[in-house]
Specification:
single chain, alpha/beta, TIM Barrel, globular
């Protein structure tokens, strides 16, 4: 299926991309921008931003939409990673950083304590930098979730990814209601943390199902949602069912902000969960907690 014109991206500014790539290589850090073949890598790297991928680069789950490598074996964490991450954030001068991870179902706490170490390392070196976490579901280990939330990231993101009807096909090792419960627990116990979630379209869902997921997210106290076009990484991954038009993405955004009352809906063909994440700083000033 040929990509429509609205999915074409501008060539990146190679000089700036090279600077960021060299820094990441020097500090032996991974980014989801690189590992998941994100279409916005040129724009984000050119702007000096990146979404750091910790505990990776291999994931213990094999979701057929994702381009990250699969490895179910038990692997020790690198205790130096938090310090190297903190150094990268400082050297890049980031005002807002996104930290995500692969699923680490082989670990007792799913990597929750490692997330905390990364938060502490960033705050030690860059105390004014706001921190956004994009976390896995920790297999429903709510003690692990509490450990992360007690470290008080500014934004807690957990992606719902798709509609419940497609979970068996798209997220076979995840549970829709468990992801909703995770998001609900954040606001119930840690009210100052902003909550965020995202989903892909173009996997076979209907518009009505998208609106129902948005409604479920709102009912579970999510503040910010992202909606973007699914793009298949390759022939071994799920194919694209449809290309959603920019007008339809505008419709999702208008429904979410005007009708449902989300603080922000970032909705466009090239939107990903961390795309323009730094805009949350303005939102936090507009809706302080």
């Amino acid at each position: 299926m040929l990509k429509p014109s609205w999915l074409r991206v501008k060539a990146p500014q190679q000089e700036r991309v090279g600077v960021v790539s060299e820094l990441l290589s020097d500090l032996k850090l991974n980014t989801v921008c690189q590992e998941a073949s994100c279409p916005n890598i040129g724009e984000c790297f050119a702007g000096g931003t990146a979404t750091f991928l910790i505990m990776g680069p291999a994931c213990t789950r094999s979701c057929p939409y994702c381009d990250i490598d699969f490895d179910r074996s038990v692997r020790p964490l690198d205790p130096t990673e938090p310090d190297r991450l903190g150094e990268a954030v400082s050297r890049l001068g980031l005002l807002h950083v996104v930290i995500t991870s692969v699923n680490r179902d082989d670990l007792q706490d799913g990597g929750a304590s490692h997330f905390v170490s990364c938060i502490n390392a960033v705050r030690d070196r860059s105390p004014k930098t706001t921190i956004e976490l994009l976390i896995p579901d920790f297999c429903g280990n709510w003690d692990a979730l509490s450990l992360v939330l007690d470290a008080l990231p500014n934004v807690l993101n957990h992606n719902i990814e798709t509609v419940p009807r497609l979970y068996r096909k798209v997220r076979p090792q995840a549970i829709y209601k468990r992801s909703l419960e995770l998001l609900r627990r954040v606001r119930e116990g840690w009210g100052k943390i902003y909550t965020k979630s995202g989903l892909m379209v173009g996997l076979g869902e209907t518009d009505q199902e998208v609106l129902e997921v948005m409604s479920d997210l709102k009912d579970n106290n999510v503040d910010i949602i992202t909606i973007g076009q699914y793009l298949s990484p390759g022939p071994k991954h799920l194919p694209v069912d449809r290309f959603v038009t920019p007008k339809k993405f505008d419709f999702y955004r208008d429904m979410g902000e005007s009708q449902m009352g989300f603080l922000q809906v970032v909705s466009s063909p090239l939107t990903r969960s961390s795309y323009h994440a730094g805009e949350v700083k303005k939102l936090m000033k507009t809706y302080p907690r």
